[in-house]
Write a structure and sequence with these properties.
Layout (H helix, E strand, L loop, with lengths): L1 H5 L1 H33 L4 H15 L3 H11 L9 H25 L4 H9 L4 H16 L1 H14 L14 H7 L4 H30 L4
Length: 214
């Protein structure tokens, strides 16, 4: 317990850093995921091609390599941002590819007749997708989206290697101070467990309220 009680502020700072990364990157991933899912099913070929390239590249690129590309590549083009924002961009863009595919699988479960009925009423593709298809698709894929965001929370640990304040990175300071590495990691694991269980609980509530009855 000493490692926690003696360094509660350090743990707290790292915990809050991970929470912030998770929240902001999750919001970005959801927005981009919905957008790319719309591109993937759009009637415009260039949109479909862009969505396919986005998903293919990001899903098949190691996250650590993506961090290097964002943190070291963007400054070469004059884009200089705080490290935390770079980390949010890397995490959010990477996870958006998985959110996109989860949503696309949900879209494929919607009967085509619903889209045809909406278009027969004079609704555009965007209106049909936004008001008829995507809301139903989201309801059917709430659990896998929750699992994807839980994975995002754990992937945020990579950010610590790039000078971003987060939970896992606290072990370096505590190790230098001579604390037991085992107990250091035990309390780090507890912190991640709190975050992931909170996300799981949130999506369980969403599933009960919005999910498709089975």
């Amino acid at each position: 317990m000493d490692v926690l009680t003696d360094n509660f502020s350090l743990y707290g700072k790292g915990f809050l850093g991970t929470v912030e990364l998770t929240v902001y990157a999750s919001l970005l991933a959801l927005v981009l995921g919905f957008l790319m899912a719309a591109f993937r099913v759009a009637p415009v070929g260039s949109f479909r091609a862009f969505g396919t390239v986005w998903v293919t590249i990001l899903r098949n690129t190691p996250l650590t390599l993506l961090f290097f590309a964002v943190l070291l590549g963007l400054p070469r083009f004059g884009i200089v941002l705080p490290f935390q924002l770079f980390a949010v961009l890397a995490l959010g863009c990477y996870t958006s590819a998985f959110i996109c595919e989860v949503l696309r699988s949900g879209i494929n479960t919607i009967p085509k007749g619903q889209g045809e009925a909406a278009r027969s009423l004079g609704m555009s593709f965007g209106q049909t997708l936004g008001t008829v298809v995507l809301p139903q698709a989201f309801r059917s894929v709430i659990p896998p989206i929750g699992s994807t965001l839980i994975a995002l929370a754990k992937n945020s640990a990579i950010a610590g290697a790039f000078s971003v304040t987060e939970l896992l990175g606290t072990y370096k300071t505590l190790n230098e101070l001579g604390y037991s590495i085992i107990w250091t990691f035990v309390w780090i694991a507890v912190g991640y467990l709190i975050i992931t269980l909170s996300i799981s609980a949130l999506f369980n509530v969403l599933e009960k309220r919005l999910g498709v009855a089975r």
